[in-house]
# Entry
Amino acid sequence: VLQGRDLAVLVDAAEDRGGLEAIRRGERLEGLLDLADELAAVDGLVLPGGESTVFDKLARTFHLDQPLRDAIAGGLPTLATCAGLIYCAREVRDAAVGQQTLGVLDVVVGRNAFGSQVDSFETTLDVKGYGSVPATFIRAPRVVELGSGVQAIATMSDGSVVGVQQGRITALAFHPEQNEDLTIHRTWVDRL
Ligand code: GLN
# Structure
């Protein structure tokens, strides 16, 4: 599982290799390119919460967008949460200017649909196939359109779709990891 070695880690990797200078010079870093090769060897991929515009910029800068797209579209089991969901979506409403996504998940998402950071909240949700789990919403998206091959697996009481499954992609609008409950990750890993 490529757990934690998400795109956000690129920054750490760059620092580890004294790479910030190289980034400034616009050089490609060997270690970061290895990450693309590693995709072929992993059992699954977690695209976590964070900031989808940053994922997009880093992935394109380091030429990881197409390897990621190919791997996920090719059936790599993927757990995408919050920014990860946005980054996978076919279309993003309220996207940042020039923001691109992998487009591997046939949904339209509304970015920041539940408000800003100060509107963050926690609730408990029934997620089909996972049971009842605590869910933390931080600048979370909402799924506003689902393609025919996409199933809703989590829905709020107001009808907002906040979890979907498409083949081997599980995508959640909320953070499942901001608490002690490991149900989502444990169940997902057990199924790999
Ligand atoms: N709104 C953020 C984005 O656009 C996602 C926030 C999060 O992952 N908690 O990527």
About this structure: Helices lie at 9-16, 19-24, 30-38, 52-61, 65-73, 83-88, 183-191. The CA atoms of residues 14 and 24 lie 11 Å apart. The mean pLDDT is 85. The chain is about 30% helix and 25% strand.
